[in-house]
Amino acid sequence: MAGRVVVVTSGKGGVGKTTTVANIGTGLALRHKKVVMIDADIGLRNLDVVMGLENRIVYDLVDVAEKTCRSINKALIKDKRLSNLFLLPAAQTRNKDAITPDQMIEIVEGLKEEFDYILIDCPAGIERGFNNAVAAATEAIVVTTPEVSAVRDADRIIGLLQEKEIYEPLLVLNRLRPEMVRKGDMMDVDDINDILAIKLLGIVPDDEEIIISTNKGEPAVLNSHSKAGEAFRNIVKRLEGEEVPFMPINGETGLFGKFLKLMHGK
Amino acid sequence: MLLPATSSLRAEELVFKGLKQGLTLFIPEKESFGHWLTLLDQRLNAAKDFFQGGTILVELGERKLTPGELAGLRKILGKYRMRIKDFNPIAKKRFVPRSKEQSPISTGVLLVKGTVRSGQRMENEGDIVVKGDLNPGGEIVATGDIIVLGALRGVAHAGAGGNMQAEIVAFSLSPVQLRIAHLISRAPEGRKGRQGPEVAYIKGEKIVVERL
């Protein structure tokens, strides 16, 4: 069976694409799926750092595209914790023009047979890098934060994904701060759902643990005490088709009711 | 002075030209509008007998007129007993459906199936009906009416080309900007969209919004 090819994208930079890829990839691997994460952010690679695998890179995505390395397996880096999780890193010294959408499709086709999931970390923006990252994908996860600018860019991206014939992207709402929403200082889930109107895959609360785990190179999903980690574990389950209720953030029943409504409403 | 056969939208000089649609006055985009009005006055005065009492089309290119400028133009033309038939006849020709998602349900009406998202732009010579929302950052331009069967949160331009009778209707109206014919308006700061359908149209020289 051919694996699922999922691109994680956002339009805007700094909303948590790479963190999302690292956590979903690790989460899926914890459930014994064979997963490869491709960093398509050539020139600004981060996924290796977030995964703590920076010092193991020998070959990268551009080497594979240009066939500098003998086989793609030479470029795949095995995770230091999970043996069924792999990373195909981006080149750091090149730029987005170093590969073409066709090369990307060829690379992904070669991986499809062997892996259950191929997660592609898309660069910010809507130019060449985006086109490369999306070319091979058949599914998409759109990441946004509760800010007007991020939501606007997410909307743009959903339109562009439709042009690439990815019609039902899933939404991850990152860095929600429940106490600010409660005070009316932050866009709430309903506001965002009103505009974007795509299926919600998960809500990740703003969590200091994420910064700590990113700096340590250890995805939060591995940490059973992290709220964000728990949110990502739920996201992984939903991605696998399980029905998981949205978790109450800070145990506030009003919000929980809203999440339930969202979950069952649409 | 005549324009080349493949006349672009940007005229360099104030010029009258006989087009298929009728006699057309080209007003260049550069310089102030007042500058061209003065020139127009002189030009018409010099050829009074020729222009006396006709109707003309006016091609403005990308230029948008303020109500004052429009009144000025009307006044000068009125002096020579001329009337404006329509605006931007050439620009109108450019309104063609583009995306495969659009299908004309009858001549002149464009049905957009789904939401117009940020960065997307729909144009039509005639009316446009959107079966979904118009999101912030999205644009709809029609020479006729615009109907949004959802929330209108982006930029809508009805009556593009000069039709002052055009209307914009939405089930929930909270636009970034509304344009009808040559008029532009934006919602007052902090206005939240009222519940229920509303209609925008021109009353006097202003765009007004009313409950439908």
Which helices and strands, and how do they pair?
The complex is a heterodimer of chains A (266) and B (212).
Chain A: E1 4-9, H1 17-30, E2 35-39, H2 47-50, H3 61-65, H4 72-75, E3 77-78, E4 85-88, H5 101-112, E5 117-121, H6 128-135, E6 139-144, H7 148-163, E7 170-176, H8 178-182, H9 189-196, E8 199-205, H10 208-216, H11 227-239, H12 253-265
Parallel strand pairs in A: 1-5, 1-6, 2-4, 2-5, 6-7, 7-8
Antiparallel strand pairs in A: 3-4
Helix pairs in contact in A: 1-11, 5-6
Chain B: E1 15-19, E2 22-26, H1 33-46, H2 48-51, E3 55-59, H3 67-79, E4 83-87, H4 89-93, E5 102-106, E6 109-113, E7 121-124, E8 127-131, E9 139-142, E10 146-152, E11 155-158, E12 168-173, E13 177-180, E14 183-185, E15 198-203, E16 206-211
Parallel strand pairs in B: 2-3, 3-4, 6-8, 7-9, 8-10, 9-11, 10-12, 11-13
Antiparallel strand pairs in B: 1-2, 5-6, 12-15, 13-14, 15-16
Helix pairs in contact in B: 1-3
What do you see in this structure?
The complex is a heterodimer of chains A (266) and B (212). Chain A has helices at 17-30, 47-50, 61-65, 72-75, 101-112, 128-135, 148-163, 178-182, 189-196, 208-216, 227-239, 253-265; strands at 4-9, 35-39, 77-78, 85-88, 117-121, 139-144, 170-176, 199-205. Chain A is an alpha/beta fold. The longest helix of chain A is centred in the middle third of the chain and has 16 residues, at 148-163. The two termini of chain A are 31 Å apart. Chain B is of the alpha/beta class. Chain B has 4 helices and 16 strands. Chain B has helices at residues 33-46, 48-51, 67-79, 89-93; strands at residues 15-19, 22-26, 55-59, 83-87, 102-106, 109-113, 121-124, 127-131, 139-142, 146-152, 155-158, 168-173, 177-180, 183-185, 198-203, 206-211. In chain B, a hairpin with a 2-residue loop joins strand 5 (102-106) and strand 6. Chain B starts with 14 loop residues before the first strand and ends with a strand. The interface between A and B is small, with 10 and 11 residues.
